[in-house]
Amino acid sequence: MSRTPDQPRLTPQFCFNQTALRDSLRISRGAVDDTINQNLNALVTPSSTPFDPTSTAERQPRPAGRRAIDATSCSGFKDRVLFPSWQVRSDVLSYCAGVATSPDPDDPDHVLRQVEDVRARERIVNERLDPYSGRYFPREARTESLAALLRNEMMVEKIIRSRTWSLVGERCENEDRDFEKATDAWRTRRGGSR
């Protein structure tokens, strides 16, 4: 069974380092969600029932690899591996979303953007001579860039969780059809929502 990756140390520098942020999310997804079938197969005890030679005479309703998993193993996997890994990623995305919406006094490109804005206002624009002279594309602040990345990552996260939850539902009897409700119920059982 997979081990939940550790939560990275959450700092604004971590969030602004988009490579580190993406890698952290990718590693967590790869450890649990991308390998969900292998993780679920690891929950099945292969020798729980002895081999019956007559079982080969008739077609089985489920392929052997898609055998249902007992409820105790399923709930243990969800409570100890799946939901904690989702929570770690939610914490990272929430923290970085807060960083993206906060003022950024340490932005290294702030002065450069101000200088470019002043130059753009002072330019003489003659669109008859140069139809492109009126164009000005200001640099994006790093908080805006981070916000765009987080919007994409949140959409990816929703798609991945939905897919993972449907695969878990095929093998385990999920009480909730919706992964968000199941995650909220897990948070409540743990003693608080984050």
Automatic annotation (TrEMBL):
Residues 45-56 have a biased composition (Low complexity). Pfam families: MIX23. Residues 43-68 are annotated as: Disordered. It comes from the Eukaryota. GO terms for cellular component: mitochondrial intermembrane space. Belongs to the MIX23 family. This is Caffeine-induced death protein Cid2. It comes from Cryoendolithus antarcticus. The lineage of its organism: Eukaryota, Fungi, Dikarya, Ascomycota, Pezizomycotina.
